[in-house]
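QA checklist item 7 of 12: single-chain prediction sanity check.
[x] sequence parsed
[x] length recorded as 297
[x] structure emitted
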Amino acid sequence: MSESTAGLRRKIAGAEDLRSVVRTMKAVAASSIGQYEKSVHALDDYYRTVELGLGACFRKSGPAPLMAERKGRTAVDAIGAVVFGSDQGLVGQFNDVVADQAVKTLAALTAKSEVWAVGERVRARLTDAGLPLTGLFSVPGSVMAITPLVGQILVGCGLPRSQGDATELHLFFNRPTSGSGYEPVHQRLLPLDENWRHRLADLPWPTGNLPEVTGSGTATLRSFIREYLFVSIFRACAESLASENASRLAAMQRADKNIDESLEDLNGKFHRLRQSGIDEELFDVVSGFEALSAKKK
């Protein structure tokens, strides 16, 4: 009996320690979601400003400076893809969902793919799916670390070169939804096609003053395009990090609930076993007393 109760005590103590760790991870994930969501919202105005600047450039000079370099190029030279995942576990199906989206989308494209993974976990999923990888980037641990990662992606994928070539660039990441959910997103950044140009050129200017593009039209346009690529990748990374922490928060909530149920069950078993031991001891005392009383009579 004593060994059984001691074993239950150890299990209860271990479950309580695990619950404290899970609740700490819940608090960290909840605070991380807030900072990444704030960074995404902070980018909205800047992203809108970049789009308005591109629209003003296209309305003034047209697509000639940008599109002239692509004249005669109809085939896609290469397909680049960046898949945002996680370096750490305890995120449920987070990496599986985005990896499946990337594998299915790239399988439907005929050109050769060059894939960069952001995160060890998603790299393993892509490798298991038979998708060869060109490079691997570490997942940033804070909002401040996203900017260096974007710079590494821009250099690693050769985006300054691909602005003039017919190379495609695709982003695969998870975007937060209502509650603690998320959904996989596929965004094509390159090439900058006619539909993209017309959409930006048709954006209405927010004030009554007419915009004026200063300096060289081509240089200004290229600067806006670099900012457009930068902010697009930055936002994709921030949304992926917010989704990762939302998935981890949901997983920790489920784990916390399961631990509470296990603790309730263990405590019930412990109290029943302890009560059974007490009953046996009382029964032994009563039996002994009755035996002594019978001898005296």
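[x] summary fact logged: The chain has a mean pLDDT of 82.
[ ] second reviewer sign-off
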